[in-house]
# Entry
Amino acid sequence: MASQRTLTLLFTVHSWAGIVTGLLLFVICMSGALAVFKHEIDLWGNPSLRHLEHAQSPVGPQAVLAAVQSALPGSKVENIVLPTDTSPAYFAQVRHENGLRSKIAVDAGNAAVIGPVDSELGQFVRMLHVFLFFAPRWIVGFLGAVMLVLALTGIVIHRKIMRELFTVRWRRSSRLAASDLHKASAIWGLAFHLLIAFTGCWLGLAPVFEQSWRYLSGGADPAVALPKDARKQPMQSLDALLLQARRDLPGLEPETISLRNAQRADAVVTISGDLPQQLISSARVSYAGADGRTLDLRDPRQRGFWSRFDGWMEPLHFGDFGGLMLKALYCVLGLSAAGLAISGTVIWADRRRQQHRSGDAAHSSAMAGGRLV
Amino acid sequence: MFDRIMAALLTAAPTALLLCAATSLWLGRRLELLPGNQGLGPWLFILLWLLLTALNARATRPVAVWRRGLHGNAVGSATVALSGLLQHSPQAGAMAAACAVAALACSAGAMALPRAGTAPVRAPARARRPTLLRRCMNDLPWWVLAACFVESFRIAQTAGDGRGAGHTGMLLAFFVLLPALSLVAWFRGPARLAWLIGSALLGWLALAADRPVLAALALTALLCARPLGGRTLPSTGAAT
# Structure
């Protein structure tokens, strides 16, 4: 059993960490709950795609690349996003000559270029969640660490877990109701809150730890090590590379094809996706565009426990491995995490008001006492 | 005032996001959302958020701010649902149903709030406060810690080999200095030791990476180890 001193310490840490980061945590949890439906929101935000249907036999990415290049000469295709259960179209992310990027929808049935999408609302919500629009991902990673501290300190503070699961005193004071709601929702959602806090912290901070370790150990950044050769050279067919990727990474469900320095001798084609059987994201394979050589193969199954562990983080954080019902559950529990920020703020503000009032009362009684004397 | 602003900020954020969604649906390609494409989406969100916060926070009682905010969320959800239906968006029906549930939940929440709420607070009694110099000295370690983090963050954002030093600096500030400073009132010895080690490591890192500002901040942090010893337990009240 924790001593009173420990409880005071944990309570102080819990309340101060909560009030300092509460607003940001609310925004992150609220946008995260919505970002679970990123693909659905993206589709909803594009009325021009409403007539598209899932193609029985979709064309390959090579046809999509050729169609976009002929429709937008002078632009560079940087990514091709493959159709999914949610989205029936191909999407090509294109960088124009003026440096701006746009996302072009392409009919998966006949590779007809539909045109720029109406909006990227799902990505907008996700950017709010992951980057707070402008910040690097580490900020949200640090906030994940704070959320983890809040959850862990909360567990110890509210030790009477079983009793608090079912206690909400609506008809007493608003502070009591808020306090009971805070505890009950925190305990009901505890496993989920710990999960998203940990995975969020990992996703945000793992690259920072990696960079830091590389700096301290004097290792080179692998992204910088690729040779440069700007001569023009046609690329291997993306369809063939996609087939090769399926052979190299058995079980791969490809999501994105990234093109770096397309149509140059140093072109690199990276095919990335999920390994749904193993609940792993972040599998990818890179090929030299010119001759189809394998440059880099990242199969988390082959790279030891930590690589596999790293691959679990994204699906576990965003809940995109169990269909729509799981997404709905993630959304509701994510909103409950946002609700904790609200109820925590209410409790803190109410206590602050009460402290002011008791300060007032003490001041008045001291004044009265002074007069009497 | 703080209560009202916090309540207004918390309740206005979802409304602003919902209104951004509706605006995006109506304006289509004319409103670029993503900041990477020089879009105005984030600024629209921030503008709407601040505007709605200012409007909601004008209510005199915190409970009225919450009520206004929840009604705002309900209106925002309804707007999004209607926008999708009118624009014939894909999956408009499912989205409208989800928004209707959200709107009903928000309205129910607004109605469930107590009518009268808490009485407005009188100005707090003037307690004897420490002098400005003493307060500055008390808060100095926090300011130094924040400056160390910001400077490390700045270094991590720059191009070149020194970025790793910034990453390491951020990790040291967040995982060593911040816990040390937070817990110094309870575990004076270990926390001071952790603070000293963290500051020394930060200083070594700054010197190795040739970052004089970070080195100066690390030195200041080292010097702050002495005032850290005088910090006392903050008064918090009992846990609810």
